[in-house]
């Protein structure tokens, strides 16, 4: 029953947005009475929070699996494969992503997202550490991992939601270039001048 209510909450959130969602609409979409709904969730916010939690958990699981599967590969291969998986995961439920990001930010307690960001940040730090010989000596691995995770997260979300006139291959190549800069020594000073 809980999954049924969460499914209905997702449908209503996508169709009507946060402001247009109500427990009555959600109960109707779940084909149950409002009284039955209240046995499982105290209010609309609890249902919407469960929708967000499930969605972010699913995206996090997919991306975490891609990161782990590609951790030992060269960054030139691992980075675009992982970001491509993130784009796919986010794009699979684009309208739900829009509702979560643009209509319900105040409800997202962020526990799932924060845990995911920390895990991916640790994996990014591990990837940098594994290639410490090629990483510039002045790179702070903790700071770099934090920035990389948030930059990729933000840019991929905006790419999916905004649909800019940038082909996916171009976006993937450019965001990969941005990430790979942390894995490469800068050109020698004489070459830069």
TrEMBL record:
Pfam families: TetR_C_15, TetR_N. Residues 1-59 form the HTH tetR-type domain. The keyword Transferase does not apply. SUPFAM superfamilies: Homeodomain-like (SSF46689). Residues 22-41 bind DNA. It comes from the Bacteria. Keywords: DNA-binding. Signal peptide: none annotated. This is TetR/AcrR family transcriptional regulator.
């Amino acid at each position: 029953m809980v999954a049924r209510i969460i499914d209905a909450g997702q449908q209503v959130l996508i169709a009507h947005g946060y402001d247009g969602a109500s427990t009555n609409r959600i109960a109707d979409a779940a084909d149950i009475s409002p009284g039955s709904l209240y046995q499982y969730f105290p209010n609309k916010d609890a249902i919407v929070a469960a929708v967000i939690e499930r969605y972010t958990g699913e995206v996090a699981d997919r991306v975490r699996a891609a990161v782990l599967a590609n951790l030992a590969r060269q960054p030139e291969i691992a980075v675009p494969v992982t970001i491509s998986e993130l784009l796919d995961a986010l794009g699979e439920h684009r309208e739900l992503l829009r509702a979560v990001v643009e209509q319900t930010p105040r409800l997202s307690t962020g526990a799932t997202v924060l845990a995911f960001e920390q895990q991916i940040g640790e994996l990014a730090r591990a990837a940098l550490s594994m290639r410490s010989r090629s990483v510039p000596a002045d790179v702070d691995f903790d700071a770099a991992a934090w920035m990389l995770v948030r930059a990729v997260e933000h840019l991929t979300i905006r790419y999916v939601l905004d649909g800019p006139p940038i082909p996916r291959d171009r976006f993937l190549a450019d965001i990969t270039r941005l990430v790979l800069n942390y894995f490469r020594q800068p050109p020698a000073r004489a070459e830069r001048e």
